[in-house]
Amino acid sequence: MVNLLRDNELIYGRLLAVEAPHLVERYNKALAAFGLTQTKLASFEIDRSGFSPQVAEELGDLNYLDPNQVNRRFVILTPAQAELPVVHTAFSNTSQLLYEFFSRNSRAIDALTIKDVIYGEIEDSVAMVEDIEDLLSISQVEFRVLSAEDVLGKAAELGRLVDRLKQEPDAWRDDAMLNQMVELAKVCGDIRENALVPDQVIFRHNAFWTSHFGGLYVFVDPDMTTVISDPAAPGFRRSRPWQVSYLSIHDADRVFHFLASTGRLELPRASWIEASDYLEHRAEMAILALIREAEPERDIANADKVWLQTWIHGHADMINRDGIFPFLNAAKREIRQLGQMRMEEVAPQHRFQVVRAKPNHPDAWLTSRLISDFVPADFVSRYVFNKQGFYTDYEKLSEPWRSFVVERLKTAYLNDKEALRRRLYGLTD
User: Fold this and answer.
1) Tell me: the pLDDT tens digits for 358-414?
2) Are the C-beta atoms of residues 221 and 239 closer than 8 Å to each other?
3) Which residues face 120 on adjacent strands?
4) What's the pTM?
5) Cα 379 to chain center, whole Å?
6) Which among 129, 9, 119 is positioned nearest to 67, based on CA atoms?
7) Domain map (residue ranges) of the chain
8) What is the DSSP letter of 411?
9) Which of 262, 252, 204 minimizes the C-alpha distance to 228?
10) How far is CA 257 from CA 105, 122, 181, 262, in A?
11) Helices marked H in 137-218
12) How far is CA 187 from CA 12, 76, 407, in A?
């Protein structure tokens, strides 16, 4: 499975190659500090957090930087990691937290990585997640930052000695202290010019998805926190009902009303539906899912519109029983006539077919991920917003369909990601 995806940069894509011997050596120092076996690889790739799929494979541990799926570890070799994706994480907001850390501490990271490797943990308030309350107790995270050569500690010590030199009239007579400052400066450089200590290490932990308990969403509003998960998750509806609302991820009606009432959904209106070809995209995904269900071994790589139309005519009963394709055609007619849809008349299981996340809402990506859980047949949306879900779905496909899905994602998405996200989902970043 992984080879086809990796060869086409659909998994572990856009990673940074670590090949220089001094960077490999620094990475190994971080691994040793974590108590892990050092890599014997001469080169490997890393993501924004420092996770390497090649090192994970060598160690036989996909979670070597995330041992309890909480308090995520990180390894920073270069400021260039800020522009990389995070390809393996238990929390959807890990990538954003790391980006904020890079952004707020760019001067320190630039200076430190010239001489050293930065490593540490994104510390939460819990060491293990045993129920939902543990997740809800995480309101902020703190980056515990260390460096292999202790440049951070030496910079702090040099700063202390500089302060002493300024404040104590006779300190300049202390030859031992002055010699110590010279030795420290050889490592740290001029700390007046090089900001070696991070400015901000504490960040808010807001809305997120986590892989815990089979997949769980947390949305945060001013007066209420909303948890959306399987009701079998430990702690579901057990605590703080005045502060926490619990919704079953199997209840499409209640989940839809929550997202709509909190302003997270863009309802179907002609203003964006007709320009985006959103319903045409959903309809094609629905038909492809039915073809896959009926003929899982069929190779449709060269199927054209005429073949698809012929298939649709020949399987009208199956399509009508499924209901999605006829519904989407009816939705197009209603929007063309009225400019919008009467959502109260739409069956709950169909509503997510015709809505998208409100593009300018801070939770747009998280909401899009949740929508994709209700429209799993749309493998394009699954890949864009919910890669874990996409990879799970992909494992169940036959070889011909794996090849078809990969080729489709290459041509429809990878060729111009920004254009597709802008057209279908209204997203500009």
Assistant:
1) 999 999 999 999 999 999 999 999 999 999 999 999 999 999 999 999 999 999 999
2) no
3) 74, 145
4) 0.87
5) 17
6) 129
7) 2-150+196-204, 251-425
8) I
9) 252
10) 40, 34, 63, 8
11) 151-167, 175-188
12) 35, 18, 51
